[in-house]
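Reopening this one. Same input as before:
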Amino acid sequence: MRVFIAIELSDDVKDYIEKRQKIIKKYSEKGNFSYRENFHLTLRFIGEVDYDEIERIKTAVNETACINKEFYLQLGELGYFPRKNKKIIWIGINKGHKNLRSLFNNLEKNLVKQGFNREERGLKPHITIGREVVMRNEFDYIKKQVNIEPLKILVDKISLMESTRINGKLTYIPIYTKNMLSYR
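Same output, byte for byte:
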């Protein structure tokens, strides 16, 4: 089973991102665009695991959620990671970095305690909206057309997600979710 730990997004946020994604598609020759239901923010990619490792990940998620209070993130600018002549297009995070970093560091600590290796790449918070995208125009021009509003994202739970293919379609399924401490 292939898994990762994520912050799931509300339907409103997913709808908003999907509308921006449609604009990007108009300016793209081709690309592998994320499905609306798969939009998320990855906290930690884990990879292939067995049942015993799943239980240890759940323990780390529980311990992390129990010491972190809910907080808000804010959508930031459109960005990309270059991959030869293609791009991975994403929306970044504008506010909430301190709380997100604390959540990530606590999760890392708890995963290491459960026998997992520390993440080498660190945290680069983003919501992927397309992979292997070939653009028709310069990225800066497209960025101006898309105009990302600083939408708020409530981070009140952590989810362990399975990445699988169902009828050939990449699907992310929450297999375990733990609520964080609430202010409400």
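So the earlier flakiness isn't reproducible anymore. For the record, The domain at 2-179 is CATH 3.90.1140.10 (Cyclic Phosphodiesterase; Chain: A,).
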